[in-house]
Amino acid sequence: MMQQAKEGTMPPKTKPLLWTPGDWNALFGFGTNILVNLLVLTGLLQFVLKMPSDIVFGRILPALGLMMFLSTGYYAWLAYQLAKKTGRDDVCALPSGISVPHMFVVTFVIMLPIASMTGDPVKGWEAGLVWVFFQSFILMAGGFIAPFIRKVTPRAALLGTLAGVSIAFISMRPALEIFLTPAIGLTCLAIILLSWFGGVRYPRGIPAGLVAIGFGMVIAWGSALLGLDVGGLSLAKLGAAFSTFGFSLPLPAVDHVFSGFSYLGIILVTAIPFGIYDLVEAMDNVESAEAAGDHYPTTRVLTADGVVSLIGCLMGNPFINAVYIGHPGWKAMGGRIGYSAATGLMVIALCWFGIIALLLALIPIVAISPILLYIGMLIGAQAFQTTPTSHAPAIVLALTPHLAAWAKTLIDGALGAAGTNAAAVGIDKMANMGVLYHGLELMGGGAILSGLVLGAIAVFVIERQFLNAAAFAAAGAVLTYFGLMHGEAIGIGKGLGVTPSISLAYAMVAALLYACSRSLVGAVEPKTMTTEPHGKLEPAE
Fold this sequence. Notes:
The protein is mainly alpha-helical. It folds into two domains: 13-385, no CATH class; 389-518, no CATH class. It has helices at residues 2-6, 21-48, 53-86, 100-118, 121-152, 155-180, 182-196, 208-225, 235-241, 254-259, 264-291, 298-314, 327-332, 338-352, 355-362, 365-385, 392-417, 422-425, 427-432, 437-444, 447-462, 466-481, 500-519; strands at residues 96-98, 321-323. A two-stranded antiparallel sheet has the order 1-2. The longest helix is centred in the first third of the chain and has 34 residues, at 53-86. The chain crosses the membrane at residues 26-49, 56-78, 98-117, 129-149, 155-172, 179-199, 205-228, 260-280, 301-325, 345-375, 439-460, 466-484, 496-515.
């Protein structure tokens, strides 16, 4: 019995501490991380989507605050239960918050295109709500199917298609913004790179993101005082931001959720593959926590993320919740149970009292752009750093549909600004000028799934596992038939599929690969799939 207690299998007589001195360190670090994400998210809503302020500060942010409060509170409770069960005093709560990759995907791939197409950002918001609605149920069901998906899909395919999103839809816009205001953008980028890639530590351990924002504010406000207007800040805008102060409780948005179902075909093309990615990401992060000594049940984590995301969605929040990477770091910093719950309380205060608008009026948006670029760089690099070197060509192949989708978005935006569209200009005329618009349209449709399938086929060909490659090619044929790949919406076309020629081509590839798997048995030995990456991904602070 004494041995059992020593090993932590017997419940202790004393209750776990809800707060320790180390929780202050974790709260400052993790809280700053969450604050930056909130500022970025609000900037996307206001400046990219042109969302009305009453929707941003009166509906979306209060609902988001509620979601994060529930999430961080639940994971604090889960940590408390684990500490109570094991008798350990070093249990650290799982960090959680807005899923950063999804924040950009739902903005640029779902909400922005629909807002641009309809001319109404509220329609984009409603589409985002439906996206999260489906993602939530995928997460809740994911505890049962996630192990199978992870088993059959190569990591290079999953991370490769995510890298495509990071390069095209996360990295490019911030990079362009940096060079539009280089005095702030490049300076802040250097601050970020020095710390998060170069290992430079700033005085008193201040996080690099906070240092970058501080420098950006100094340059922007200094230039404003000199009448140079570098950064676009002004006392007038600062004064206007005070108008958002007030107490806003989240209100049910079920009617807006149902309104967004009219865009279901477009939404499912990305909701399904990103739901799959969520499952893998959550499992990876739970495994990371277990490696640090804290065992949390994957099914409960996935279910919790799904439930709190669904609650947030029904209250008006179009951004999904996720367990963050970095649990070992916060634990090493001294974080235990309290830092998680305290972060939730901080978010409630920021979101329900309209403080975010004031912070945005104080901080130049270009000072945040390097943080976004860094996130895109990290996600893109992860695909190469955590997979075998031999799979690099497959990752590049998985990127290409996203580049096509990005190029089409730029062309559509430019033509829209000129008051026309590709059909009016003429697809053939554009092709004669070297712009293969229809090719971009076909390759970029359903880019996330397209990249995943193409990447998986390439990985299995590289590994000489032709039967597996044939299975993914066959899946590509089916998905393309219904418009989930290489199509703008789900359907069956005129009975032959949304893009029948591409669907048929995938079927032919599947047949070829299957023939290779049968005829080359004994002639070509399949490789044993290696899981060793060629480098180690170091998380940011």
